[in-house]
């Protein structure tokens, strides 16, 4: 490879820097145009979203499903503001993403230039790092810094504001060859001091009733193998958060399932709740101990001893004082496994049979409790009935994506994490509308893997237009819309908390299958439970995006603790 400097204009410099870091796609809408064209010349393909917020959701899904740092682009002003929700999710969910945003130039700044906005202030609350790029000689520096900021430590968004005047420069200048490749995460893994790890191993080995509570940080770090090894060698029961689903195989005899604020009747982990509340040592891994994951901080026992593994020092001890293991989950768990091997694990071994029996009984009781809804032939269709059939037909390597709200709770409770299945949910901020674009991004990054997406009609209404994007780019995703005609979570939460609900919780009937067909993809209307199996088979076998429009029961509620008191629960 020649180290002779290239002569490049600013747009080409940006494109070359992105290419060096392994960027394959720009999630954009042609802005900034000179940069987009320069990237296209190098084989970086543009995925043209219909709206900027969907572009960030696609990039988010791509990052989570590939371990690569994606780039989303946007025009300045109103377009830039639409990046904010997606970046907020990435910040909370620890997803690396680079937003490359057009900006007014220095000579027109503070002069009411077209679509001028203080974009530094706009993005401060939703990014780890933000800089303006106004001079050609600093382009490579800032691009490298953006990738480093996004992928290192706790991953998250980095924003580059690119001057239009800079991109309009025509002068070609020599650019020295760089070789750094910074496009994957986690970057610069670290682990705690050995003494802290040894203390954690001692606590776990000698505990009376320990549990592990794994969060999304296990997935982000790629630490599933290390966690599964710990589960087996130390005989530890493992629960996960919604974002941590898939960290362990839920068919393993020591897997408790997903815990949090949905452990009421029909919740998969309802009958293992005493194992959580009676725990004396709790190992938290990549877990924010947020409100939903702890049922408003009431689920986890205050008197327990906590050990907390996290890459972000600020998360350790935020809600539960803990032995601090500040470091990457994969490296730290590997070191912890070695430390556990040096411990006397006879106490853990002797407790295993009783734990396995407790979990097996809990699973059986859960299966019995959901039988009525999982086998229901009623119309409108119960979501649990659809999930039961979907569970039978999912492939070993399926990527399952859901929107926030009820959708993510349905998959958390009624689909099983096993084999190499991956589950992706937008639970950082838990906004509506993420599901379908998130699934599209996951498919773009994994074209050879099947992707299935569950959304509600409320959330899907935010992003109908991206059906055309899927058609145009040939992105094959199966999306199932729970069309119950209501903003379900909002309606039931208002009923539970206030005794009534507002007038905007109910929708006019919408034919989502017709919308899909109008956008050039396949739409199937599903009205009868007896047609579920055949419909799923047809959708999975199709060679295009398929939307299944499920006429779902508006009174069906997932096992949210706060809803248990409602009369129709």
From TrEMBL:
PANTHER family: ACETOLACTATE SYNTHASE CATALYTIC SUBUNIT, MITOCHONDRIAL (PTHR18968:SF13), THIAMINE PYROPHOSPHATE ENZYMES (PTHR18968)
Protein's name in the database: Acetolactate synthase catalytic subunit
Family that this chain belongs to: Belongs to the TPP enzyme family.
SUPFAM superfamilies: DHS-like NAD/FAD-binding domain (SSF52467), Thiamin diphosphate-binding fold (THDP-binding) (SSF52518)
Thiamine pyrophosphate enzyme central domain mapped to chain residues: 198-336
An annotated GO cellular component: acetolactate synthase complex
UniProt keyword annotations, A-Z: Thiamine pyrophosphate
GO molecular function list: acetolactate synthase activity; flavin adenine dinucleotide binding; magnesium ion binding; thiamine pyrophosphate binding
Residue ranges constituting the Thiamine pyrophosphate enzyme TPP-binding domain according to the UniProt record: 407-550
GO biological process: isoleucine biosynthetic process; L-valine biosynthetic process
Gene3D superfamilies, sorted: 3.40.50.970, TPP-binding domain (3.40.50.1220)
Organism lineage string: Bacteria, Pseudomonadati, Acidobacteriota, Terriglobia, Terriglobales
CDD domains listed in its UniProt record: TPP_enzymes, TPP_PYR_POX_like
Cofactor needs: thiamine diphosphate
Stored InterPro entries: DHS-like_NAD/FAD-binding_dom (IPR029035), THDP-binding (IPR029061), Thiamin_PyroP_enz_cen_dom (IPR012000), Thiamin_PyroP_enz_TPP-bd_dom (IPR012001), TPP-bd_CS (IPR000399), TPP_enz (IPR045229), TPP_enzyme_TPP-bd (IPR011766)
Thiamine pyrophosphate enzyme N-terminal TPP-binding domain sequence ranges: 14-122
């Amino acid at each position: 490879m020649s180290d002779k400097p290239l002569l490049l204009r600013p747009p080409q410099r940006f494109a070359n820097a992105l290419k060096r870091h392994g960027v394959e796609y720009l999630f954009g809408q042609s802005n900034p145009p000179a940069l987009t064209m320069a990237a296209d010349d190098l084989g970086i393909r543009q995925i043209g979203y219909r709206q900027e917020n969907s572009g960030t959701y696609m990039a988010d899904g791509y990052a989570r499903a590939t371990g690569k740092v994606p780039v989303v682009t946007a025009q300045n002003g109103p377009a830039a503001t639409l990046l904010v929700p997606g970046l907020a999710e990435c910040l909370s969910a620890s997803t690396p993403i680079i937003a490359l945003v057009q900006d007014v130039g220095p000579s027109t700044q503070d002069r009411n230039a077209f679509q001028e906005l203080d974009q530094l202030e706009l993005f401060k609350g939703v990014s780890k790092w933000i800089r303006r790029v106004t001079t050609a000689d600093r382009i490579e520096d800032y691009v490298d810094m953006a990738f480093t900021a996004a992928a290192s430590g706790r991953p998250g968004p980095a924003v580059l504001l690119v001057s239009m005047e800079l991109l309009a420069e025509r002068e070609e200048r020599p650019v020295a060859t760089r070789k750094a490749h910074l496009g994957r995460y986690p970057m610069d893994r670290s682990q705690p001091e050995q003494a802290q790890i040894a203390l954690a191993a001692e606590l776990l080995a000698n505990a009376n009733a320990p549990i592990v509570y794994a969060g999304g940080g296990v997935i982000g770090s790629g630490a599933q193998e290390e966690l599964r090894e710990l589960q087996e060698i130390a005989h530890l029961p493992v629960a996960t958060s919604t974002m941590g689903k898939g960290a362990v195989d839920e068919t393993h005899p020591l897997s408790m399932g997903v815990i949090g604020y949905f452990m009421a009747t029909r919740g998969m982990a309802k009958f293992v709740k005493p194992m959580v509340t009676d725990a004396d040592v709790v190992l938290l891994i990549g877990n924010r101990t947020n409100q939903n994951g702890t049922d408003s901080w009431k689920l986890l026992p205050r008197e327990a001893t906590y050990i907390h593994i996290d890459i972000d020092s600020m998360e350790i001890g935020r809600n539960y004082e803990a032995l601090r293991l500040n470091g990457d989950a994969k490296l730290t768990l590997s070191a912890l496994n070695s430390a556990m091997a040096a411990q006397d694990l006879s106490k853990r071994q002797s407790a295993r049979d009783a734990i396995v029996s407790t979990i097996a009984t809990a699973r059986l009781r859960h299966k019995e409790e959901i039988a009525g809804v999982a086998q229901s032939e009623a119309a409108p269709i119960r979501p649990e009935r659809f999930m039961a059939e979907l569970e039978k037909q999912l492939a070993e390597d399926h990527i399952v994506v859901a929107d926030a709200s009820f959708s993510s709770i349905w998959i958390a409770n009624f689909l099983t994490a096993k084999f190499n299945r991956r589950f992706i949910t937008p639970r950082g901020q838990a906004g509506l509308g993420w599901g379908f674009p998130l699934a599209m991004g996951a498919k773009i990054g994994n074209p050879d893997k099947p992707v299935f997406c569950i959304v509600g009609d409320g959330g899907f209404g935010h992003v109908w237009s991206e059906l055309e994007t899927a058609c145009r780019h040939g992105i094959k995703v199966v999306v199932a819309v729970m069309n119950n005609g209501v903003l379900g979570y909002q309606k039931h939460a208002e009923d539970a908390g206030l005794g009534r609900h507002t007038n905007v919780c109910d929708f006019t009937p919408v034919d989502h299958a017709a919308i899909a067909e109008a956008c050039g993809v396949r739409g199937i209307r599903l009205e009868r439970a007896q047609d579920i199996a055949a419909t799923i088979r047809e959708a999975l076998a199709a060679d295009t995006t398929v939307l299944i429009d499920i006429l779902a029961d508006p009174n069906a509620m997932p096992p949210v603790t706060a809803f248990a008191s409602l009369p129709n629960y």
